[in-house]
Amino acid sequence: MNTPLDNPTRRIHVRINGTAVVRDVECRKHLVDFLREDCGLTGSHLGCEHGVCGACSVRLDGQVVRGCLVLAAQADGRAVETVETPTPSARLRALQDAFVEHNALQCGYCTPGMLMAALDLIEHRPDADREQARDWISGNYCRCTGYHAIVDAVCAVLDQQRAGRFADEAIA
User: Fold this and answer.
1) Which residue has the higher pLDDT, 35 or 145?
2) May I ask the CATH class of domain 9-81?
């Protein structure tokens, strides 16, 4: 017999991709499950569910986090950004375009988390070289590409940034 204590819920107020969302969530529900099941945002994937693979990576108040390790209740009063934001920054759009141009995706399972990690690199280490880019995304597993094309795409956007393409856009 279920009692109210079996599945305690909490009302959360969160801004997801710029939209205010108010929902009741089970206290034990992870952020990635909340995004996928309650909000219909299926870009972030469940991979290992141990915070190792990076497929569930999203940004919480501008910081990349593993959505499988953060509880939805911890996002209360905070801002979440996923890869499917309706208003991507010029840097995120450039990364998405570069991933296509450089064939940096195959099955696409790791791509959302990889894009979040790459965006974080571009915003925080604009001077990164190829080795540093590879190291930065190393926490995101890809079983299909061998990473070469992904690193090519990230470096192409780093080059665009160094050439001043995003000079008029503030970093998130």
Assistant:
1) 35
2) alpha beta
Alpha helices in the chain (DSSP H): 31-33, 90-101, 111-124, 130-136, 148-162
- From the list 70, 96, 73, the residue with the least C-alpha distance to 83 is 96
Stretch(es) of the chain classified as CATH 3.10.20.30: 9-81
**Residue pLDDT, tens place only, 98-146:** 999 999 988 989 999 999 999 999 999 999 999 999 999 999 999 888 8
CATH 1.10.150.120 domain residues, the chain = 90-162
pTM of the model: 0.90
Report the b/e string of 125-148 with b at 16+ CB within 10 A: eeebeeeebbebbeebbbeebebe
110 in Cβ contact with 70 (< 8 Å): no
CATH code of 90-162, in short, is 1.10.150.120
